[in-house]
Amino acid sequence: MGITPSLQKHLDGRDVRYDVVTHEPTKRSSATAKAGGIAEDNLAKGVLVCRKDGYILAIIPTSLPRESRRARYVVAAAGWLGE
Q: Is the pTM higher than 0.85?
C-alpha cells in the first residue's frame, strides 16, 4: 500500500514533510507498522468523514488504545472544524 495521488498532491502543495512506506495490505494497525518496519506510535491512518458541507480527512494516530476512543477523536475533529 502507498499514498493516493490526491493526498500526495494535497500534502505536497502545502510543503508537508512525510515519508511513504509501502507494504502489503494488512488488517490491523499493529500489523501495518510491523510490515512497514516502523514503530506503531509513529503510524496514523486517514479516515474520510462526510459532513453537510462536504468531506474532511481526519488523520487518526494509531496509538489511541481503542476503537471507541478513535471514533470520539474523529467526532471531535469534525466538530472542531465546524458543523
A: no
